[in-house]
Structure formats: structure tokens, C-alpha cells
Amino acid sequence: MRTSPRPPVIPGRTAPSPDPFRSSQAPARSGPSTSALPHRTLPVRRRALAILSTVLLCATACAGPQPGPSMTPAPEPTGPVPGVARNAPLHAVDPGLVAAARDLPETYPGSATRDGDPTARVTLGRASPGDEDYRHGSVGLSLESTDLADPRLGEDNDDLVSILQSLHEPTLRFGGNSTDRRFFFTPTDEPIPTDWPLAKGEKITKVTPADLERVAALARRTGTSVILSANLARYDPDRAADLAAHARAAFGDRLVGLMIGNEPNGFHRGSDDPLSVKGPEWNRTVYARQLTAYARAVHREVPHLRIVAPGAYSEPWWKAAAEAPDTAPMALALHQYPLSECGTRWPEQRPTVANAVSPGTRERVDSLVSSARSVADEHRVPLWITETSLSSCSGGNQITETLAAAVYQADYSMRVQALAAERVTAHSSLGPCHGGPPMSPLCSDGTVGSPGERFGLRANGLALALIASIPQGTMTPARTGSEDLTAFAVSHPDGSTSLVLSDFRDPATAGPRTTTVRTPAAVQRVTQSQLRGGSWRATAPVSEAANPHGASGSPSAQGTGTSTPGDAASYPADPRVALSVENALRPADRGAVSVDGYGLPITPPADRPEVAGVRPGATSFAVSLPAGTTTVLTIETKHATARPSAPASPSGDGTPAPKATPGVPRATTRSGGQ
User: Fold this and answer.
1) Using an 8 Å Cβ cutoff, are 608 and 23 in contact?
2) For 422, left (φ over 0), alpha (ψ -120 to 50), or beta?
3) Phi, psi of 57, rounded to the nearest 5 degrees
4) Which of 28, 534, 599, 627 is most buried (most C-beta within 10 Å)?
């Protein structure tokens, strides 16, 4: 990644595509840093940082003669943010301080409209009592059940703490194909079974209460809710009850549900399929009977623990789970991988860039989620999407690492919440960036045989973090007149609105588009944050972030007034931390997928640059949006326009009101396709 300072951008002037923030990182300056900026009171955090810098400089200048070699040594110097230690992990630092150190312009580069550009319109409505809630915790990650035994998954892993905190009280689900094939929970340290059928190279993973306690410490530290899964293929309701009891003891109320098996509709795939775990006698009737037995056993140990089922992508199996006796309270679990035609059938469902950005793919998402919502409404249970990604072919092919997948993921995360999915977890892995599943939003350094402890986010992970930065509120109507532009709005109790706009035009061939937004109340100020890249196949430089940097690779201290570039380059990066303050100040390379030209942390809404040309008091404004982007606009109004939204329920309780119109799902394919 680039480590040298970049020339300054003049706010309000259009920056060259594809990276509007490429020139926003200015070298440290001795004079005023805002003389060329439009007059505006700096955000509180920026003013605090400036004051702290002045105090530190004054303390140094006024201290008189410096101590000689025989006197007490000077304290360890701080990193590029005053008062913050070198190589501090992101979770230990206010994101607003990092944003101030990045020295972002006051006006978002490229947001000013230009004559002659194509146009689009977006119309916002008002919140109403029937609108869906937008909750923190609704966006999260899904891991394999066997990952519970991974010692890296604990509160002492700074990068994992930073990632989970960036998702703002997420849901962390443990499940996947390993649940019914390689996951063995034992509270008494029993030996690993030797009679389970395994594919070549596979092994059974033992998980114990000590593993649950380690992961629970991470969940408590990061405000994370957890869903666990019980092995259904190895029929043992009592063992599932033991898992539930120990999980409740470890996680407390952060345990929001227990899944019974994973994708039971795929248990029998034929005798020659290595994923088959049941014979031809397996059917929905047998499944429903076993689901009831598990639920009864679990509720004897942990009354009222939510049963989550079936974790399937087939409507008959949803109904079988919802109609099974004695499963209440229950959540209906849907899995969805819309581009998982790994063979030659259904060309519109193959994992290609064209399909990733196609309106037809979004229509199939709406159709399947609406059908699942209809079943959930009929049985008065909440809908959770416990496993999803763009594609599951071979664990996710290279398309899942790209900008196309990231814009899709951002749109999907908002789309399914508008359809009343209370939780959605993107399937992930703790595997390495090189050789691990490309679909995973996060990945580690190291190799497949020896993965490391440093973690970073891929492009779809940055998309999740951008969406998760939206405060809680109420989903409100937003309409566009273009099939290649989608809009989702969230109204907040303070009267502001977050507007998420995803532009599905090709960034390599299409130019900026002037988008006029009409609002139901007068606008005071609009700020912006944007996910973008140079082409649909662009990726985030996660492998560079996850690999240790030496002294020569350390970023320059910028915008603090207390350090020089030489100071920051004179010490090595922490080999244990990828997501450090120093790396957060390292701009992304031109054309790479980034949010506002950087990776984590996502700049808080109050500290984001403003959209150019907004007239206070008007009920509309225009913004220039590049192709191939997801943009989050925070619209501040003069008067409150939104009703207060209910706080998120940590247990996910509550029955959504009927809202969506059921659609007709396409023929199902392997592992969650439709």
C-alpha cells in the first residue's frame, strides 16, 4: 500500500475518477490547514484533536531545558494521533480522532454536480407506524461451528475486536456445513468419535465449554449477539441440550438462539455426494419429528431459548420447520446464495459480474425473501437470514472478493431489512487471505496450513461496516426511477435520515450521474461516505493489511502537528495488529476498493465531508454519484420528521407485521442458490 503523503485536494473541485480521496491526504503543515476550506465550524472531535495537539506542543516548548542522559528518560512518544500510543488497535481509539488525523476535506470531492452529466431522481417519503425497524445487530457474520475451537477467536485478538466493533453490536452465527459433519461438542472431554464418515482431508473438531467461555468473552467485549448450532445429522437431542445449557452459562442473554442442524434439505444428496449425511429415508416428516425432539430437550435445560430452523433455501422445508410442534419460541432461518449455479443450468444464476449487478438478481432476492417472510408471518415468527453471500460455488469464487460483490452486499443488507429480516449474517471464515474462502468478508495472514492472528476486511466486509455505521432508526420509503440505482432510507429519532444509494452502472465505462434527492422536510446539511473502486473486479488490499509491515512500511504521521513523517517511519508496525491507527491512516491505492479512500474505521456520520452545493432550507438537493458505488448520505433537517424507533431487542423477540408480497422462488440449486 502507498505510504507517502499525497498532494492536497481543493474541496468542492471534482477529483479524478476512480478515487476521489486519492489527493485528500496532505503532508503535515506548519501553517493553518483549513485556510482553503469553506467556512464551517469543525466537528467537535476535530476541535478536540486540535486543542490536544496545541497543548502537547505548548508543553514541549514551555518545559525549559531538556533532561540530560543521566536524568529520567522521556516518555515513550505517541503515534500519529496525539495521546494515542504507537500501533494502537482501532478498537481502542475514537474513530472521530482517526478521521481528524486523516485530514479529510470539509466538502466531499466530486460531490458537486456538473452540467451535461446524466441525471436520476430519488424521492423520500415519511416514516409511518407500519415501517420496519432498522437495528444495530441486524448485520453480522456467520462462521463455521468448528471455528468455536479456534484459539484466535477471543477477546485478546485486537483485530477481531476491531472488526466486530466496526459492525456495531452485530450478530455472530456459528453453523455451516461443518455443524452436521465435523462438529462434536462435549462437556466432559469425551474422545472424538471414530465412526463418522468424513471426506478426504477432513477431521472432526471437538468443542468444549472452555471454548464457549473464550468466545463469550469476545462477545461481551464487542457487544455481539450469538447464535450457535447443534449437530442434527448425528441424532443426539441430549447433547444439544448440554450445548444449550453451557452456552447459556457462558453467553448469558447474548445467546439469542440455537440452530438445529444446517440446511437439512441437503442432508441426502445421493450416495456418491460427500456432503450426504443421511440416506434416502430422510424427508421433511422425519426432520420435523427430530426437530421437535431437539426443541423439547433444549427447553428442559434452557426454557424459552429461541429455536432457529431450518437454515434452508427451500419453501417446503421452511413450512416443515414452522409447523413442527413444541418449537416455540422460534425464528425462521433462510439461507440465500443467488449466484450459485456452478454448472451449466440457469445462466442468469452463474457467478459473473454481469449477474452480480443485474436487476434480475435483485428481483430473485426479493422473491425468495418475500416468500420466506410470508411463511414467517403465517406462523408469527421472526425471519432471520443466518447464512448468505453472493455465491457459494467452490466456497465462493473470485467474484466474491470484488467491488461488484461489495455493492451487491451493501444493497442486500438494506434490501432484506426492508423486507423485515431481523438479522442477516454473511458467511465468513477465519482462514487466510491467500487460500481461504474468497466469499469471506474477513481473512487472516499466514497460510492455509498455518493461519495467522492478524485480520483485515475484504471489499464485502467494508460494505458491511459501512451499512453497520448507520444509526438505529426506521426504514422509510425511498423511490428511484432507474433500475440501475437503488435507494433505502432510515429515519432517526433526531430528525435526520440516512439514505443508501447503490449505483449498479459499470465504473469502467460510465461517468458520474447527477442525482436529485427530494425530501419531505427542509434540509439543513448533508454529509457523505462512499464505497467505491476503479472497476467491478477491483478488490480491497486486505492481504497487504493482514501482512506485517516493517519500519520502512510504516505510514507517515499526518495532520496532527505533533509528528513528522520521519518520526512515524522510524518504528516498526506491531506484528500482532493489522488494524492499527497507523494502518488506518494509510490511504488505499488508486482503483482499490475503499470507503472514502481508506479501510477501517468508517468515519462517523458527524465527521464526514459535506455534499457540495446543499442550500439550507430547501426540500431537495443534488449530488454527483460515480458509477459502481454505494453512497451513504446523512441528511440533517431543520425539524424532526421521524418517529422514535423502538430499541433493538437483544433476544430478537417480536413478530413482524405482514408487509411483503410473496413471490415465486426460482428452482433451487446447491447450497442456498435459487
Assistant:
1) no
2) alpha
3) -65, -40
4) 599
- In order of 23, 558, 562, the CA distances from 96 in angstroms are 20, 15, 18
What is the rounded distance in angstroms from the CA atom of residue 468 to the CA atom of residue 497? 15
Contacts of 288 (CB under 8 A, 6+ apart): 320, 321, 323, 324
Helices (H), 302-339: 315-322
Distance CA 129, CA 550 (A): 55
Report the C-alpha gap between 558 and 79 in whole angstroms. Answer: 10
Q: Give the whole-angstrom CA distance, residue 445 versus residue 544.
A: 9
Neighbours of 547 (CB within 10 A): 18
d(CA 478, CA 374): 23
Cα 432 to the chain's mean position, in Å? Answer: 18
Beta strands in 57-146 (DSSP E): 119-124, 133-134, 139-144
Residue range 274-301, pLDDT digits in tens: 778 898 999 999 999 999 999 999 999 9
Q: Tell me the helix, strand and coil percentages in the chain, rounded to 5.
A: 30, 20, 50
> In this predicted model, what pLDDT tens digit does every residue of 581-628 receive, in sequence order?
999 999 999 999 999 999 999 999 999 999 999 999 999 999 999 999
- Distance from C-alpha of 459 to C-alpha of 629, rounded to nearest angstrom: 12
Q: How many CB atoms lie within 10 A of CB 561?
A: 18
Cell numbers of 388, please? 448468505
Buried b (16+ CB within 10 A) or exposed e, 476-511: bbbebebebbbbbbbbbeebbbbbbbbbbbbbeebe
- For the chain, what is the largest distance between any 2 Cα atoms, rounded to a whole number of angstroms? 86
Positions in the chain short of pLDDT 50 = 1-17, 23-47, 49-70, 74-75, 549-568, 640-674
Cβ partners under 8 Å of residue 489, min gap 6: 124, 125, 475, 476, 477, 478, 497, 498, 499, 500
Distance CA 46, CA 205 (A): 49
632 contacts 465 by C-beta, under 8 angstroms = no
